[in-house]
Amino acid sequence: MKIATVLRNDDYTREVELRLKDKLKEAGSMYTFVTGPDEHPDMVLSIGGDGTLLEAVHQYGMQPTYVGIHTGHLGFYADWRPDELDDFVTMLLEQKEPFIAEYPTVQCQITTGDGQVYHKWALNELVVRNASLSTLVACVNINGDELETFRGDGLIVSSPSGSTAYNKAVDGAIVHPSIEAIQLSEIASINNQAYRTINSSLVLPKHHTVELIVMNPEIMIGLDREHGVWKNVRSIICRVGQDKVKFARYKKLTFWSRVRNSFITGSR
After folding, report:
1. Any idea which positions bind NAD(+) (predicted)?
2. By the number of CB atoms within 10 A of the CB, which of 161, 169, 221, 261 ranks highest?
3. The CATH classification of domain 2-98+250-264, taken from the options 3.90.1570.10, 3.40.50.10330, 3.30.230.10, 2.60.40.1180
């Protein structure tokens, strides 16, 4: 099996990677470490935090399975702590078959006023804001039908696993990753006598689309860790992605256990 690693940029994380490689080398295992997507690893180890995991997924795509080792605060995606490396290596050496958890993604089509089309995706979420940090104005269509004209700070379209990230911070629902859905949530919408929005998160099933018809000449678009200013965006269409990100679970830790440990107890 070929393994690649993606690291958070700090000395402690690099030390954890070296310890892991040494343990596998000492065991004389059949595992080899590779660098770069061109070498088509079977497994990618993300050593760091959730941001590191998002970086790994966008670097290596949907083909490999992913395992997270957190080296800082508790990560929602990570299963292992540095002091559990021996247990992790033992499971690898015993070639125990992990449970493969598949997490849906958000698939996005961004169309500009001059007709250019860009296809993007996110494991956590798409975030849209006005580039000047003033009011974002966008018509929101569900399956081609108008829902509302949104005015406010921004909009989030999240995946089920991303429902525990920015979406949760704006009081969106937490959605189990076995549910193939996307969620549209508002960021500080304007609601008064002149302007009205639904002012509630919407969970949309796999066969639904949400389209944002953007009125601002420049907007900020965030896709997981990728952020940039886009000019002359006409529309953004989001749906549940066709492909899923695969996580190799070598120990039992349910989604709701992750939610509890990440947000309530702060422990594994």
Report:
1. 50-51, 124-125, 151, 153, 188
2. 161
3. 3.40.50.10330
